[in-house]
From TrEMBL:
Molecular function in Gene Ontology: carboxypeptidase activity; metal ion binding; metallodipeptidase activity
Peptidase M20 dimerisation domain residues: 221-377
Listed PANTHER family: BETA-ALA-HIS DIPEPTIDASE
Protein name per UniProt: Carnosine dipeptidase 1
Note describing how the cofactor binds: Binds 2 manganese ions per subunit.
Alphabetical list of CDD domains matching this protein: M20_dipept_like_CNDP
Cellular component, GO annotation: cytosol
Residue positions binding Mn(2+) 1: 144, 179, 457
Gene it is expressed from: CNDP1
Organism from which the protein derives: Terrapene triunguis
GO aspect biological process, one term: proteolysis
């Protein structure tokens, strides 16, 4: 069996200690860089902030160049906004550090765009000023995903600073549109499959959280997502509700009825056929849920919500990971500011999404939803215009946990955190996971460093100093563990799915 020649000797624990010491000593510098990154309002959702996303991508490229990496900024073109205008997408980073044919090649994916955040949303600290309170680093993007991206870069930097050979070749794919559905990404992965990705052995994504506040996790699945926009329009301009209220079919009333028809009070999706293709639950899979350590009270506390739809650990985990869910996100055109405005909006757009699971199909899901909404709408006898569109969608992903990449990660987690990881799936969507697996047929793993209470997308997003610094050590240790793997094994053993 061929071993990757990676310069790892039997004294690798001494090597690890040397690297860990360096990381501990330089932790404040690593936090300072995270502070500089969080200060960039790289919100990919609001068109007015697109320049900041591009600036953030360029800052990341500078950091990679400083590491010694070769960096390509790939143009992704533009996309259409709902008002018909077209907007440039930020470039995508493809970078590489090391090209030794004797070493395995690991490609790291991350994103440097963030969800919107405003102090007025209820943040206790300014979302774009990384603020340390009781060992936690609060700020938008701290855990999703600037912290983990920097942890990976810090890990490589630590080898360089210590003049140690990095035992793997590193590749990076860093995007600026993940939070908006990874626009333009799939095309590039297809295009680069025979070039940039051709020599990649392993893909590592660190863009999710542990299941617990304390216990590390390794992730082998994520849900997909179909995002829907439902537009109802009565005319060209808003109307005075004193002059027209009571004599017209109001778009908002139609829209609320449509949105209200989607889910029942138990959380069940009411669209006919939605559950038809959901993978059936096997006895073997059932046992996986029973064996997982999961503190319902802790998870509830993290959410700030008093009661969940389900009471048992198994039901909760299954409804997060292996069953679809439907969430309503917002209404464009609705008057949402404080005060009273007695208007009838002429056009409103409702937004909701369906998290998909194996073996649901995106196009079947789209058709089911469109047909259902048209049926519900037709029963209202409204003369208004209904338009349903799908701005973005992504497929679910499940990997084979017996892949050697997972073995390497388990060992690295045990070394750094002193305990075995919880093997988990994630209820969120990482569009690139299934793209990597489908297109490249290589091993894909998600290795989170953030804890369950990191409040991704929320008003108190944070990463703890501990997790950021231990996460940096984890990635450095992973490089060493991957270098010890038997070569070429991964060709045989990826892409098998476990539902
Ligand atoms: N950190 C991952 C994440 O939050 N991903 C988004 C991606 C997405 C899916 N549909 C639109 N964006 C998520 O909401 O899961
Ligand atoms: Zn993310
Ligand atoms: Zn996110």
């Amino acid at each position: 069996m061929l071993l990757f020649e990676a310069g790892v000797s039997s004294s690798s624990s001494g090597l690890e200690n040397q690297i860990f010491q360096y990381i501990d000593l330089h932790q404040n510098e690593f936090i300072q860089t995270l502070k500089e990154w969080v200060a960039v309002e790289s919100d990919s959702i609001q068109p007015g902030l697109r320049q900041e996303v591009t600036r953030m991508v360029e800052l990341t490229a500078d950091r990679l160049r400083a590491l010694g990496a070769t960096v390509e900024l790939v143009k992704l073109g533009s996309h259409k906004l709902s008002d018909g205008q077209s907007l440039l997408l930020p470039p995508l980073i493809l970078a590489e550090l090391g090209k030794d044919p004797q070493k395995p090649t690991v490609c790291f994916y991350g994103h440097v765009d963030v969800q919107p955040a405003k102090k007025e949303d209820g943040w206790k600290t300014d979302p774009y000023t990384l603020t340390e309170i009781d060992g936690n680093l609060y700020g938008r993007g701290a855990t999703d995903n600037k912290g983990p991206v920097l942890a990976w870069i810090n890990a490589a930097e630590s080898f360089r600073a210590l003049k140690l050979d990095i035992p793997v070749n590193l590749k990076f794919i860093i995007e600026g549109m993940e939070e908006a559905g990874s626009l333009g990404l799939e095309e590039i992965i297809k295009k680069e499959n025979q070039r940039f990705f051709s020599d990649v052995d392993f893909f590592v994504i660190s863009d999710n959280l542990w299941l617990s506040n304390r216990k590390p996790a390794l992730t082998y699945g994520s849900r997909g997502n179909i995002c829907f926009s439902v537009e109802v329009r009565c005319g060209e301009r808003d109307l005075h509700s004193g002059s027209f209220g009571g004599i017209i079919h109001e778009p908002m009333t139609d829209l609320i009825a449509l949105l209200d028809s989607l889910v029942d009070t138990s959380g069940r999706i009411l669209i006919p056929g939605v559950y038809d293709d959901v993978a059936s639950l096997t006895e073997e899979e059932k046992k996986l849920y029973e064996a997982i350590e999961f503190d319902i009270e802790e998870y509830k506390n993290n959410s700030g919500v008093k009661k969940f739809l389900y009471d048992t650990k198994e039901e909760i985990l299954m409804h997060l990971w292996r069953y679809p869910s439907l969430s309503i996100h917002g209404i464009e055109g609705a008057f949402h500011e404080p005060g009273i405005k007695t208007v009838i909006p002429a056009k409103v757009i409702g937004k909701f999404s369906i998290r998909q699971v194996p073996h649901m199909d995106i196009s079947i899901g789209e058709h089911q939803v469109i047909k259902y909404l048209e049926d519900v709408f037709s029963k209202r006898n409204s003369p208004n215009k209904l338009k349903v569109s799908v701005p973005t969608s992504a497929m679910p992903w499940v990997a084979n946990i017996n892949d050697p990449l997972y073995t390497a990660a388990r060992k690295a987690i045990k070394t750094v955190f002193g305990q075995d990881p919880e093997m988990i799936r994630d209820g969120a969507t990482i569009p690139i996971a299934q793209m990597f697996q489908n297109i490249t047929r290589k091993s894909v793993m998600m290795l989170p460093v953030g804890a369950a209470d990191d409040a991704e997308h929320s008003q108190k997003e944070k990463i703890s100093r501990h997790n950021y610094i231990q996460g940096t050590k984890l990635f450095a240790t992973l490089f060493l563990e991957i270098a010890k793997l038997p070569g070429k094994l991964q060709e045989k053993s990826n892409t098998t799915t476990t539902n």
